[in-house]
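Example (one chain per record):
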Amino acid sequence: MVPEHLRKRWDLRAGKSSDLLPTLLDEVKDVDIFLHDSEHSYENMYWEYKTAWAHIKTGGLLLSHDVSQNAAFKDFAKHVSEEYYYMLKNLGGIKRTK
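Predicted structure:
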């Protein structure tokens, strides 16, 4: 599905985010945008937000699908003292200001 001219920039990693995300984020260092759309349990969503947040640049975005599934998104926004907003009915975002 990835066009030939983009394949050199494509790196598919399949598995649980708890196994793959820390290593991936350590490799890329800084992130402009992080999008959560994996397992939607409170524990996994909050863990992904917390893990990714340490790598999101100031001015960057944490985006999440299915934010109405549980309170993880709102709770995390409060934890990092950032305002959150909904871009669509079920897609939320937090802009990192600090």
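Caption: The helical segments are 17-28, 42-53, 72-79.
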